[in-house]
Amino acid sequence: MWKFTLRRTLIMIPQLIVLSILIFVLAQLMPGDALSGQVGPDVDPKRLDEIREQMGWNDPWHEQYGRWVGGILQGDFGDSYRFKIPVSELIGQRIVNSFWLSVATLILSYLIAIPLGITSGRYNDSWRDQLITGYSYIGFATPLFIFALVMLWLFGFTLQWFPTSGSVTPGLEPGTFEYVMSKLYHLLLPALSTALITTYGTIQYLRNEIVDTKQKDFIITARAKGASESRVYNRHILRNSLLPIAAFFGFEITNLIGGSIFIENIFGYPGMGQLLVESITLRDYTVLTATTLLFGVASILGALLSDIILSIVDPRIRIK
Amino acid sequence: MAEKLLDIKNLTTSFRIKDDYHAAVDNLSLTVNKNEVLAIVGESGCGKSALAFSIMGLHTRAKIEGDILYKGNNIAKMSPSELNKVRGNDLGMIFQDPLTSLNPLMEVGEQIGETLYLHNKNMSKNARREKVLDLLNKVGIPRAEHVINQFPHELSGGMRQRVMIAMAIANKPELLIADEPTTALDVTIQSQILDLINKLKDEMDSGIVLITHDLGVVAEMADRVAVMYAGQIVEVADVKTLFESPLHPYTRSLLNSVPNANTEQDELHVIQGIVPSLQNLPREGCRFGARIPWIDESAHEKHPELKEVAPGHQVRCTCYKHFSFPDESKEEQHVLS
Amino acid sequence: MSYLEVNDLKVHFPIKGGVFGRTVGHIKAVDGVSFSLEKGKTYGLVGESGSGKTTTGRAIIGLNNITSGKVMFDGKEITNMRRAKSDARKNIQMIFQDPYSSLNPKKRVVDIVSEPLRNFENLTRKEERKRVQELLELVGLSPESILKYPHEFSGGQRQRIGIARAIALKPKLIIADEPVSALDVSVQAQVLNFMKEIQKELDLTYLFISHDLGVIKHMCDEIGIMYKGRYVEEGTAEDIFNDPQHIYTKRLVAAIPDIDPNKREEKRKFREEVKVEYDQSYNDYFDEEGLAYKLQPVSDTHLVALPEKG
């Protein structure tokens, strides 16, 4: 078990290196740099070259990359070109916001997926199953950003049940009960919007697991023992079907990252997704590379988490 | 007169294919007595497993007609909760493939314990554990204290089947149904499992229905044998009679087609044609008729029934009187009829 | 001069372990197997699951990598089958166990049977079709069935399709890996009879791999018994069934159910005796690792794995 985890963690290292190189090179390839558009046309191009030289932007890419990685390893992502403050400071609060939004989305998504998946799988091919499958098809087909816009328009602007931007009502003292409630209130609508759309994967996965498990020989064995149908479901079918769902959890994180980029922008929620888009439009490379890298690391960690969870819950893998 | 444990009367088990029901077990009647091993032999598709599942009430999508009387109570008409009181308690079942028939994510001890728990909810956890250890010892599993916490995939095929047996006999069932219990096992393991079933039978004084396609296993185990073909029983006899003087053409063909390590034969008998599929079962006349085309049609009955030809020996259809293998001489045929 | 000669064949599979997935040991699936096979005869390779019999067959035809040892076929070395000349590959074919999974369900019979033809012979469509029809006729299937798919056939018929594919290139040696284990007895009889028939007709040599001693005895002239990757005994069918010498063989033979119910008690007693003997003399027949010793001749045809005397 420990060996497995260790080996699995070691595999991550080359993954991270490749990821960081990729991000760095891609950022370099983007047209323009932090100076373009920021300085007036009257500035002497020679002066610009001097600044570039001074910033080290004319060095070969691997030297720049070395500096960049070296800084990150010490917790220094550099300074934002635009905001002139350290990137880590810029990211700080946003990463916390994004984290809580993800947690809320995950909880909501499982709250929706598990009962629906169970119903769909247990009564497969009934009208209930067809209804739920219909819902997941809609979820699959609907683009998240359109759905989110509709939700925002309906519940935010028209009905005014939820705030339409921000992560907390300004002026509240951090740490107070009101502050926490306000935070929760602000992330509810974006979380729900994401959960409603992205949960289809888990629903269908759980449904198929259950339908599959139902046909296994050991289910017949359980019936032959005299177990009631409800016991057969709870003890044998559900238990065996939920385990792979637990392993699916890590991959959900990757899904969420993709979703957060849209959601945070639409709901004006100050998180990592919003920061990423901002940094692209502003050509704020240090921020851009830092956020992309963190997203990448989160995905890799998600996959790692999945494997470790699976190895814990499934005794057939646990043995190794 | 032996005590009847199971009395099956006119059982028809049909499955729905497209819009029609097709009988996999067709109007079958059979009894199983206390403390006897009744073997049901036949090839795949003959309905023997459908019969076993019917006795256990395990079909979820089949139409069951007729009566399955277990000590006078009709299993075929029981409600689910009544059925669950009988299954695992009075009736135990052993399945063919112990790997797929055990829950891969549940410890062996828990799986055996579940059978105990379901029929005696007052048993304490400790008492249950003791009983499980006891059962593991009984079925010959070494290091039971260790195995009790293992998962099925950690055990060998033979050990897994012993676990299945421990599960089936946990509540001392009076009737044990073994559906191809050794088919998935190696021959040395097979003989061990068969010996174990035999030993347990004597200890528990219960009846066993042994479903198999292996005539060697039948010869080793059975007291009585029912041969099934196309959803019907074509011959019933005690084991010695069946092997020494089989009558029905199917029984005789089957016996002649087995390559056997203990006899010499150069060419094996081949039954002509193929086993008909469920939708194509011949429903009229002698169902085996099409496989022995060299026998004149007049030899068959229009509506063949099982008839007693000697005490305890029943045969379906009159064609057996006129049957001989194509390469057999005529004199032999006369001797037989 | 024997037709197929296998000399000290070893097939070891690495076991990966540790943090870096290094090779920490080997599973010795086949561990020093030697036998030879005469032209036109059937050689039976018997053993229980995990004995290495299937791996041996697969190694000869090049489906498993050979760790060491030598395989000679018709006087030529074919140890690395995949690198061997194509005529050796043509001359040795394999029949697989499960006729349900060894045929590609998405291919028509004509494509399945002609696959080896396409690999080795340049035939026009028309010639190819004609050859396939001939082959199907030879295995007793109607020539019209060439456009059907495997699922339209019964188990026995599918195994015939598998055989048709195996004999398409007119091979000299066929390795049959449990060819009838997935079949019902009556179908099994059909396939076995048929295999015997074409053996005479096409002058085939069989390496017949099975766990079923009844089938082995019916089919084979010579038999080798394998246990944990090694030979425990080799001899004629007569030697093995009437005069088994190794305790493992005795146990195997004793375990075969007798088709005569009258001998039931006798057989059960015999099994118990053998079991007692097995437990008592285990150390005389197996080394410290529980593996068999090297084969020693006890007669001209009969070899038994016994510790060297002295």
Quick overview:
The complex is a heterotrimer of chains A (320), B (337) and C (310). Chain A is mainly α.
Task: Give structural notes.
The complex is a heterotrimer of chains A (320), B (337) and C (310). Helix content of chain A is 76%, strand content 0%. Chain A has 320 residues and is mostly helical. Chain A folds into two domains: 31-76, no CATH class; 92-318, Orthogonal Bundle (MetI-like fold). The mean pLDDT of chain A is 83. In chain B, α4 (125-138) crosses α6. Helix content of chain B is 31%, strand content 24%. With 337 residues, chain B is of the alpha/beta class. The model of chain B is unreliable at 329-337 (pLDDT under 50). Chain B has two domains: 4-222, Rossmann fold (3-Layer(aba) Sandwich); 229-336, no CATH class. The two termini of chain B are 30 Å apart. Chain C folds into two domains: 39-62 and 80-226, Rossmann fold, CATH 3.40.50.300; 229-310, no CATH class. Chain C is globular and about 65 Å long. The two termini of chain C are 33 Å apart. Classes of the chains: A mainly alpha (320), B alpha/beta (337), C alpha/beta (310). Chains A and C meet through α1 of A and loops of C.
Could you give the topology of this structure?
The complex is a heterotrimer of chains A (320), B (337) and C (310).
Chain A lengths: L1 H28 L15 H11 L5 H13 L13 H36 L4 H15 L2 H15 L18 H22 L1 H15 L2 H8 L4 H38 L5 H10 L3 H29 L1 H4 L2
Helix pairs in contact in A: 1-12, 4-5, 4-7, 4-8, 4-10, 5-8, 6-7, 6-10, 7-10, 8-10, 9-10, 10-11, 10-12, 11-12
Chain B lengths: L3 E14 L2 E14 L3 E5 L6 H8 L6 E9 L2 E2 L5 H7 L4 E4 L13 H12 L5 H14 L5 H4 L9 H13 L5 E5 L7 H18 L2 E6 L2 H7 L2 E6 L2 E7 H6 L4 H8 L49 E5 L2 E4 L13 H7 L1
Parallel strand pairs in B: 3-8, 3-9, 6-7, 7-8
Antiparallel strand pairs in B: 1-2, 1-4, 4-5, 9-10, 10-12, 11-12
Helix pairs in contact in B: 3-4, 3-6, 4-6, 6-7
Chain C lengths: L3 E14 L4 E16 L4 E5 L6 H9 L6 E6 L2 E2 L8 H6 E4 L13 H12 L4 H14 L16 H13 L5 E5 L7 H18 L2 E6 L2 H7 L2 E6 L2 E7 H6 L4 H9 L8 H22 L9 E3 L5 E3 L5
Helix pairs in contact in C: 3-4, 3-5, 4-5, 5-6, 9-10
